[in-house]
Description:
There is one protein chain. The chain is mostly helical. The protein has one domain: 434 Repressor (Amino-terminal Domain) (Orthogonal Bundle), CATH 1.10.260. About 75% of the residues lie in helices and about 0% in strands. It contains five helices and no strands. It has helices at about 5-20, 25-30, 35-45, 50-60, 65-85. Helix 4 runs antiparallel to helix 5. The longest helix has 22 residues, at about 65-85. The two termini are about 15 Å apart.
Amino acid sequence: MAKSSNDLCIREIVKKKAREKGYSLNGIARILGKTPTYIRSVLIGKEVSRPTVYRIAKLIDFPELCFLYEEMLENQRIEKGKREGER
């Protein structure tokens, strides 16, 4: 699946907000008991985990992340539908 600019944007926003709070993505992964690869996969929508995103949003004090994540997932569903419709 190609990464959209929104997917990368969410990951970059989380990285920036995490740094402001003194965390890295690896540090967030450790705190949440997940692997860094899993956290990155969730943030680009390859893996879907609303509870993980909610926990990240709480940790970095950025509740808007949940809304951005839902928007990203919806955009991915739309793109997938378009691709399947072209077959």
